[in-house]
Design goal:
It is a single chain. The relative contact order is 0.14. The longest helix is centred in the N-terminal third of the chain and has 20 residues. The chain has an 8-stranded mixed beta sheet with strand order 1-2-4-3-5-6-7-8, sandwiched between helices. Helix 3 crosses helix 4. It has 11 helices and 8 strands. It is α/β, with parallel strands linked by helices.
Length: about 350
């Protein structure tokens, strides 16, 4: 009798543990219990849908066609403070899209660095952007940009890596440097990154538990923002995003948590072993870093730039993680990438 009770208790614990770590199914847009589809979308070759947004001049008249890949907890409605005058003067067409699981784009349970690359390529082809296009990745969205440099360099006219999130487990990093910078991360973020890398199946359980804080950026912890970041945030609040509530509408696991699992997982390649996609200087790859960024260690970013001397490295002295949303800097970044002129950083 006692052994049967223990067995039943054991089965109960296993069932409870399985339910605790198993994320709920996503609320897919357009499904019976899901949110409505409110954005233009393309249907990908694997059957998923990808939502997108077009800005700037008409794509058929554009001199520069730019795809922007949004970061963590963001969407195709990413705030890009570019003046209409600059857009018209340079002839810029901008294409943004909801990455898999975000906004109105279908989740991808097999999401990887490589899958995101081919989402970009298929989107570019379906919207007829031409043989080559410019690509800008922001924050964790830069794992897509690194993937494009690896898998489709022939499609790129130029690449901007803006505050690209560092994966502490890239093989080329010296272990001492990785360990030193990793320890500077808030304790809750250390646990989040460790679980995302070593035990991704447990990430949903960790991120959804209420006993311990789990993520600085999701909690909007003030410690992650610099003085300049706060100034940028004030300006951003003056231009509210009416679609902000749609970012996580299909579930935090398929949008945010899967982002962490891919971005900080084990990659198929080491970015610091990549070759220049522009051996004849026909384009450029530029990396922008805020010196005071608390989410992305500038010391490690400098190491990346040193290992890849074909990347133009720009550091904003008082910049934090939100530099792409700074009115002046955003325009400077676009002009530097498209016109290939040396920027003046203020």
């Amino acid at each position: 009798m006692w052994s049967e009770a223990v067995a039943i208790l054991g089965i109960g614990i296993v069932i409870w543990a399985y339910q605790a770590i198993r994320p709920p199914p996503p609320k897919i847009c357009g499904s019976k219990n899901g949110p409505p589809v409110t954005s233009p979308r393309i249907k990908l070759s694997d059957g998923r849908h990808l939502a997108y947004r077009e800005r700037g001049v008409a794509r058929e008249n554009a001199k520069y066609r730019v795809i922007v890949v949004h970061g963590f907890d963001s969407s195709k409605d990413i705030y890009l403070p570019l003046s209409q005058e600059l857009i018209d003067e340079l002839g810029i067409y901008i294409l943004t899209f909801d990455r898999a699981g975000y906004g109105d784009s279908d989740p991808n349970p097999n999401r990887s660095v490589k899958s995101e690359v081919f989402d970009v390529q298929e989107l570019a082809d379906r919207l007829q952007l031409g043989e080559k296009f410019y690509l800008i990745g922001v924050s964790i969205g830069t794992y897509t940009a690194w993937g494009c440099l690896k898998y489709i360099p022939h499609r790129l006219a130029g690449v901007g890596l803006i505050v690209p999130v560092i994966n502490f487990w890239w093989p080329s990093f010296p272990s001492e440097l990785s360990a030193e910078e990793y320890k500077k991360q808030p304790k809750k973020d250390q646990w989040k990154l460790r679980i995302a890398h070593y035990a991704p199946a447990l990430l949903y359980s960790w991120m959804s538990q209420k006993w311990f804080p789990s993520c600085s950026i999701m909690a909007r912890d003030p410690v992650i923002f610099t003085k300049r970041d706060f100034e940028i945030l004030k300006k951003m609040l003056q231009v509210p995003n009416p679609n902000e509530h749609k970012i996580r509408q299909q579930g935090e696991h398929e949008s945010l948590y899967r982002d962490l699992m891919v971005g900080f997982g084990s990659w198929e390649f080491d970015p610091m072993e990549l070759k220049s996609p522009f051996p004849n200087n026909e384009g450029s790859v530029q990396l922008w870093q805020g010196c005071l960024d608390t989410l992305v260690p500038s010391q490690m970013q400098r190491y990346v730039a040193k290992k890849l001397p074909w990347i133009r490295y720009y550091e904003v002295p008082d910049g934090g993680h939100l530099i792409v949303h700074d009115n002046g800097l955003c325009e400077t970044m676009f002009k530097a990438l498209l016109l290939r002129e040396e920027p003046t950083i203020v």
